[in-house]
Amino acid sequence: MGYNISIRLDNRRKKKSGMYPIKLRVYGKETQKEKWYNLDIDLTEKKFQEIWLNPNNKKLRGENKELRLKLQAIENRANDEASKLGVFDFKNFEFKLFRKSSDKNNLQFHFNVAIENCIKKNKINTAESFKYTLNSLGTFSNEVKNCPIEKLKFQQINVDWLRDYESYMVKKGKSYTTIAIYTRTLRVIFNNAIEAKDLNQEYYPFGKSKYQILRTKKVKKALNSKELKVLFDAKPANENESKAKDFWFFSFACNGINPKDIALLKYSDIKEDKFTYYRAKTFDKKAEKTEIIIYLTDFTNSIIEKYGNKNKNSFVFDILNENDDANEQHKKIKNFTRYINDHIKRLAVANKLPSDISFYYARHSFATNSLRKGASMEFISEALNHSDLSVTKNYFAGFEDEAKKEFANSIMNF
């Protein structure tokens, strides 16, 4: 047993009332560390001796007996939770102990834990994804199953429940992609609960012969070379459209760099004729961190010259501030992305280009046009920072048929 648990009187400092706090003392043998947890109960030394330490405590009556039973229940639960851990550690012990017993099977509780963990790690986008999923599941559970989300248990969510949720979402006009995202997020919460040993594997509703999460293939839209020339030569109606066009083509020229990475780019990342960065979207997902190298051109240098901060000790562009916390950064990047997308759409529509153009078109356009110009899959894979070549092949498989035809027809142009 890698721990010792006991109820103690913390007599290091007497309170004004003349009493001392009662605490749960936990000692981890592996780390040789101890922690004392406040139980919000105060007693005098004499009373503690009488209620907890007196061997004749069977004679206790009334409030004293109730308090004895309460302390015994706390100690028993602490020992019970610690024994279930296998290998004792304070973090997991505290997670298990400081919650209601009903939280173990509660879906909302585990979602909130996941959201909290994401916020602590500054993963604001992921935290929002958990929130959106929880809201969607809560609406369905309340409207269709007549069960408020705060009472929804894992055991209630079976294959039929998930199929009903899918049908409900379709009737609400939600896309299959949205349904897939939400059910995948729900699956993460199930896996978390199983890993925390709060849920038995038998209640897992996903997988073979169970609920199959919808698989959708999103067509990755891109501008062809003629459309790119039209957009590049287009005359913006105002400064907003001009700025949107500049940053859109900056993304395109930098291998489809995304808005967050543009915002996080610092002058210290620039060395001579290139800059290097780590892709924020995949940074935490990979054990091996891959540095992306982007060679600067006359065009990309001109954008940095035009929009770059005069103070070269921080971010290149005036999108973020050094003092911004993760939440503020997230908000500013979203605003920047929305601003560019809104105004590039207006410029595109005015020039009879796709009306759904956005920052992501720049990344897809870089990929397809590189392939059209004869770049190898290996080059594209490295440029896009894909984990392996199969990801790049799947990425190309998602492009529109016109791009595939153009590539097939150009392959024999020696």
Automatic annotation (TrEMBL):
Signal peptide start-end: none
Domain of life: Bacteria
Alphabetized UniProt keyword annotations: Coiled coil, DNA recombination, DNA-binding
Name of one Pfam family that matches: Phage_integrase
Domain Tyr recombinase: 218-408
Coiled-coil annotated residue ranges, if any: 57-84
Keyword Amino-acid biosynthesis: no
InterPro entries linked: Arm-DNA-bind_5 (IPR035386), DNA_brk_join_enz (IPR011010), Integrase-like_cat_sf (IPR013762), Integrase_catalytic (IPR002104), Integrase_recombinase_N (IPR010998), SAM-like_dom (IPR025269), Tyrosine_recombinase_XerCD (IPR050090)
Entry similarity comment: Belongs to the 'phage' integrase family.
The protein's name in its UniProt record: Site-specific integrase
Organism: Olleya marilimosa
